Amino acid sequence: MRFALRGLAILLAAVTITSVTVKDSAATPVCCVVPDNGAGTAAIPPIGCSYLGQMAMINGLPAGATIQINSDIKALAHGFAGPGGTLGGTRQEWGGQITMTMTGTGTLFGFNRVIVLPLPSPQQETHSAPRTPFAPVQSFNEDLYFLQGQVTGDPDFDLLRITAGSGFGQPSPGHTILGQTGGGWAVDSFFDIYYRIDFVGKPGSVLSGYSGSTTGTNRHLLCPGSVSVTESAWGALKSLYR
């Protein structure tokens, strides 16, 4: 009986070592699930899922004023994907949009806009480190290499442009975890985005006569904590042989 119980404990410990938790309760919803790409993994970046963060416009505005931005970066289409990139794994081209919810401060108090900048496909690019296809959890580093979009002729901006990514000399590292769930993959991901925002105010608008460039860094998160790996049970396993 003693040896049978020991064997059962070893089996349970081994299962724990490789177990995966995908948090999908009402309290912690899995906010991004994408299909398998047919090769035992998921296409990255995930289509239709939001990387949420904050940005700001400071330089070139009236003294003491800022424009605070809640930013939502979303991939909407994939382009080329194949071996390559700076991390020795996969290079991915894509297109999408960034939704910028703007709130003015100081003398720009009351300025509130929501502007959607297109991110043309396939001009956006991310690089991923190698991963193990068909593994139930795939955890790998990433690099946002190219991100750029702009609008012109807006009621408040003659030009509003955002640029980010290592390919522009603005290092933007990240990390992604894929957790197998059903026939697809739950995604937990982030990028520490080093961005630059350039603007030229529209004549006749509240920003008339103003222009400038602001750089900053902010972590943009997608579904933080939605995929986790159960803590290793090696300690418990070793104790059975002491």
In short:
With 242 residues, the protein is mostly beta strands.
> Overall pLDDT, averaged?
87
Question: What share of the residues lie within helices?
Answer: under 10%
Distance between the first and last residues' Cα: 18 Å
Count of the domains: 2
SS content category? mainly beta
Number of helices: 2
* Rg, Å, rounded: 22 Å
Strand portion, in percent?
Answer: over 45%
Q: Low-confidence stretches at least 5 residues in length (pLDDT < 50)?
A: 1-20, 24-29, 230-242
Number of strands: 12
User: What string, H for helix and E for strand, traces the elements in order?
Assistant: HEEEEEEEEEEEEH
* 3D shape: elongated
Largest sheet, in brief, is: 10 strands, antiparallel
Report on this structure.
By secondary structure, the chain is mostly beta strands. It has 2 domains: about 1-20 and about 230-240, no CATH class; about 30-225. About 10% of the residues lie in helices and about 55% in strands. It has helices spanning about 1-20, 235-240, and strands spanning about 20, 35, 50-55, 65-85, 90-105, 110-130, 135-150, 155-165, 175-180, 185-200, 210-220, 225-230. The strands form 2 sheets. Strands 2, 3, 4, 5, 6, 7, 8, 9, 10 and 11 form a 10-stranded antiparallel β-sheet that branches.
